[in-house]
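Troubleshooting: if your tokenizer reports a length mismatch, compare your output against this known-good record of 147 residues.
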Amino acid sequence: MDITINTPALLFPAISLIMLAYTNRFLALSNRVRSLHDKYEGHENRPIIHAQIRNLRYRLKLIKNMQALGVLTFLSSILCMYFIYNEWMILAHWVFALSLFIFAASLALSLLEIQLSTKAIELELSDIEGLDDPSVMEYIKKKFEKD
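Known-good structure output:
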């Protein structure tokens, strides 16, 4: 397969958008950390808050690594373009493949972080007593029964 200098350049918009999404997730998480800090300072030292703090610490590490892998994807794409420019095609192929793998790893970490954010919301909801947690099928059945 032959690649041109435009091939790695095609990754730039995708990487830019994903980095913007990662930054937004980081900002939302930092707001949540500040809110939990206020709760903690208000002497509401419940086990739920401690579990949320552990969850947030892990998610912050994931986001940091997601962003680092996104930057590495950018750099490897630029390096690939340099190799193509100098007509070092074997190196260009390998570096382009590496940039795709790094980008995939970044997306995999993003998926893991999304899963953990769902667990954080479940922790918040578990603090509220008396709410049932229907399965998806039960929820759908109730929706259709009301109509």
